[in-house]
Design goal:
Layout lengths: L1 H42 L17 H8 L4 H30 L6 H9 L6 H23 L2 H4 L6 H29 L3 H9 L4 H12 L1 H16 L3 H6 L11 H10 L4 H33 L1
Helix pairs in contact: 2-13, 3-7, 3-10, 4-7, 7-10, 10-13, 12-13
Length: 300
Amino acid sequence: MADMDLRKRKNYSKLWGHLLFLGPSILIFIIVVVIPFAISLIYSFSNWNGISGEVQFVGLDNFRDIFSGKARFLDSLWFTLRMTAVCVLFINLLGLVLAVALTSRIPLRSPLRAAYYLPQTMGGLILGFIWQFIFVSGLPVIGERLNLDFLAQQWLGTENTAFAALVIVNVWQNAGYVMVIMIAGLAGISSELLESAKVEGSGALHTLLRIKLPLCIPYITVALFWTLSSALKMFEINLALTKGGPYGSTTSMTLNIYTDAFANNKYGLATAEALVFFVIIMMITSVQMYLGKRKENQLL
């Protein structure tokens, strides 16, 4: 009996200890995340304009508008998925190439690592305005001077070139972060294992594909998850560089939600779009994480 009372007191002390350390963070999470999310669920069934004190509930009308095409959500979804696929591919490929190059014995490795990572430290809006000047004023002038029509074109004037411009800026900004992740993975590979492979006649490409990359699967999973979620949530660069133009052809889902909420005063519709967007991101990232973890388990 005394042992049971002692055990209960220990459990209570542990519980109070957990509450003492986790309680403030849990409370902040509830206030900042859970409560606003619950409120947005309510607003998604209304036509509230975000200003007036009257909220009129319209049932599932907002969701019908989203999937019937009355809202621009489906167009922005298709653009976002295309942008995500291209950006994830090129960001991870370039990040991997940079990591492999900068873990080899080349001079100035540390300055080059810092230089390639530097764009990641800059804000998306700043990068967007800088690259807008480059695409509008810089590249056309260089193209005219060198008689290169490819550079002299109006980069932000057509749908295809504006899409390419967004891809260029996204890859340039984020490849350095993937490079850092992959450098950490490559640096953790045993030098003895690599020397053994070299002694057995394994070439550089074979060693990379058959030894280094399989051992870096956990790091590749993290890089894919980060680039996937970042590309899906692209906003600042899209707003600063193209503002969704020309003619709304480069409007991402986040920019479309922002425009409906704060420019068109359709807060109810915007919250419904945000809810659908949340479900889409959760499904895509969950599938990616599941496939990545399964690949890791197969290699163990």
